[in-house]
Structures
1.
Amino acid sequence: MSLDRVLERIDSNFDHFVARLDELSRVPGISAQPTPSPALMRSAEMVCEQMREVGLENVRVMEIEATHPYAYGDWLHQPGKPTLLLYAHHDVQPTGRDERWLSPPFEPEIREGRMYGRGVVDDKAGVISHLAAIAAWIQEEGGLPCNVKFIVEGEEEIGSDHLEEFLAQNSDLLAADCILLTDTANLDTGIPSITTRLRGLVGADIKVKGLRAPLHSGMWGGPVPDPVMALVQILARLVDGEGEVAIPGFWDDVRSPTAEEKAQLEALPFDEAGFRRDAGMMAGMQFSGSPGASVYEKLWFRPVLSINGLISVPVKGASNQITDCAEARVSIRLVPDQDPERCRQMLVDALADDPPFGVEVEVIPGPAAPWWSTEAVGPAFEAAARAVEQGYGAGCTFIGCGGTIPFVTPFSNVLGGIPAILLGLEDPACAAHAENESLHLGDWRKGMKATAILYAELREVL
């Protein structure tokens, strides 16, 4: 095998795959839309077209009832060699506030070395990273170093609720020796990373109602309570003065970092000014959470509560009135060893308990996704570290992820505990899930090379 030629082929093919990413990112495959979604079917079909183009076989759209479609393809011509199960997803988040996009979300645009558009980094670049690596191997060597099966999901952004069922129905088809899951982040631009832990997620919606209709605030204000103020009081008591979750019992099962883990966190590079800039924090804004915990510990080892939505009456056009009702969406990120079902119930109970002024409260439970962690030890992880270091030309870091990626646990449950290597292309500036999502094209090229190298590395150790 000539790895150098394969990597050169990635360079020569790069503009072609930039065009393929542009093409795929123009499909508005928002999985929050109800099934069946013509856009997501078109997205799955386009992924299949691109799979066939690079030389994958047995390519097809796969569906189970009431889900958005998957795309599948494989290449299985290395008897006796390991089989890699590649995972990515083709669905995307809603666009958010369209007026805040500097270019239309489904019309990708390249500016100063980054491609901007909804889904470009989360996770369509992940899909095409594997296709570029596969194309380079087949074009230069006539085949891949090992066997691959590639599954591209269509409902990751809404929680992968049916993924475990899908995997169970297709366990023989998807049997493999190692999973490469491509949907995480690097510590920073140019610093390649392998993710070894993810936070879980629980949530709930709360609706507060106190009046049959809005009232004139001057005629009724005083004796008649404000339902919006009641909601604000309910939300405020969920956290303490430092912004830490204050629900009784919520911290009982939190696994604190070990001395070794704390040392690893302290060894990671951290640029506070850059972090503040990438987060868009206002000047003078302080960090929340326990002062004794580092930023990385807060992101990866500690639960955090967020108010994701809050609505009563829009400010524009509001009059001097007492609003009759209000509602909010609350979520909490979980960490080892918290039980998602127990934590969701604690959140629901805290929202419903002792309503201020006796307002009517309805709480609707939301998701309950588990956390995940693994020990990055063994030949597969050593091979992955070598591959990303060679592809990026920089040392590999092992990191956590503050987000929740629902697909990891189903893979671990159904596929028998085979190594799961989490790689990705997001960086702190990418604004995934927000307006002006973007992909660093230089890191994407390096990620393609790391992927191609990893196929060869894993062939030798699995």
2.
Amino acid sequence: MSVKNESCSSCNEKDNCNGEECTTLRLAPNDATEVKNMVAVMSGKGGVGKSSISALLAVNLARRGLKVGVLDADITGPSIPKMFNLKEQPHSDGSFMYPLETPTGIRVISMNLLLPSEDQPVIWRGPVISGAVKQFWTDVAWGKLDYLVIDMPPGTGDVPLTVMQSLPLTGFIIVTSPQDLASVIVKKALNMANHMNVPILGMVENYSYLKCPDCGTDIKLFGEGSGSRLARETGIPLLEKLPVDPQLAALCDKGQIESYAPELFSSFPALKQ
């Protein structure tokens, strides 16, 4: 099966390429960017908490003293700025755009930071959205980062394909929820990453349980976790099983996700330092 799209039409190797291991479309960093590891957070479906997982991963990496950025690739449904209470417009000097920084020094770029108001819709077709994601890599002065976390939109369409083909990814984290329905769709994202030869670094099961405030019992709101089963079937490490946590929801709404106390992702694989 070929994964070629319209971006392949300008490639000199298009007649000799099956699209599976294409590196000619890979975009080099600009002169103001040096990123050691680029990790995308992906799922085959929406509503499983990719943005909160992306933000929590960035927060926990920053707590270890690492330099971290977040590229919000969910162009039509961005929520990263809200979680970090970022509202200003990024500065541009004519050559580069500069990301905003959170109180703990996490650098962030998102489409919502470029709009006149946060509730204005982005009504663009796929190629334009993909172009914006590329520009968030090529036109932004990220500086020196240990990790750039990419918050992906749901599905396996234009943006995931653009990220896999055009950005120098270290690997993916796959997000799922306990429902079998979610795991079936998440397998599509797993298969896409495998098809594109992008490493999968681990899996996170979100909404795994709700801890009863009275007795402390773990209530399985969405059934027994499919994350553990997927991990066994695929051999992908299960990095976290995160609960439904009202405190996290409240902190995200207030733009204070950096105050979320639990230490997470201790088993996140050691990458290039």
